[in-house]
Amino acid sequence: MLLLVLALLVLLVAVGGKRGLSIFMSLILNSLVLMISVILMAGGFSPVWVAAVAGLLILAATIFLTNSDINVAGPAFVSAIIVMLGLLVLVLVVVIHSHAAGFGAEDSEDLEGMELLIGVRFQQIMIAASLLSTLGAIAEAAIAVAAGINELDVERDHAGIVRMGREIIGTAINTLFFGFFGGFAGLFIWFSQLKYPLWEVFNNKIFVAELLTVLFSVVAVVLTVPVTTWVVGRRARAGRAQKG
């Protein structure tokens, strides 16, 4: 892992120069935020509130350290916060009613002899994990849309902006689902070899929890595109009104 991290640093600096170094620093900062969040959750703090605060810090580090143009980073950060807060409500409702938190029957062998009464509700942990897992997709979509619109005329290039948003959504959704199916290929083969019926697969805790995480990210991307478009358009119109 250390060799891979060093290779990543060398490639980022070689390709992106100072910007690549800033991206690497944002990765380190985000890793520290996540580690501190886990420590706070284990220490008794509410996982949901910890995830919400950590989400703001991660979005700020990801957006502002990877993009030096304030005309892009500012609207992207505002729209990312709006989407994150809206998504938090959706995650709370879905996780509470899905009953997918905790470990599945397939984890029983690995957990044998371990203590599960850790003083933290698994439901809250799943809510926190689901929210944090969407931040990358939110930040990426927000920056892409803000940067694209910044090069266009908000009023005159409406068709181009809509087309750009559709392309970003399509690419992001494909990336998320291919990542999901690639990471779960082994589990799918295991389900197939053990002759799991389809209804049992779709009611399996491990499968449902991971699928919900991917769906949350998809919803986040779909919401980020119009929200960022609205924020950038509103900012552009306000700027023209001040000049007029």
From TrEMBL:
Transmembrane helix as UniProt keyword: yes
InterPro entries cross-referenced by the UniProt entry: UCP031503_TM (IPR014564), YibE_F (IPR012507)
Membrane-spanning intervals of the chain: 32-65, 77-105, 125-147, 168-191, 211-233
Keyword terms of this UniProt record: Membrane, Transmembrane, Transmembrane helix
Stated name of the protein: Multitransmembrane protein
Protein's organism: Lacticaseibacillus thailandensis DSM 22698 = JCM 13996
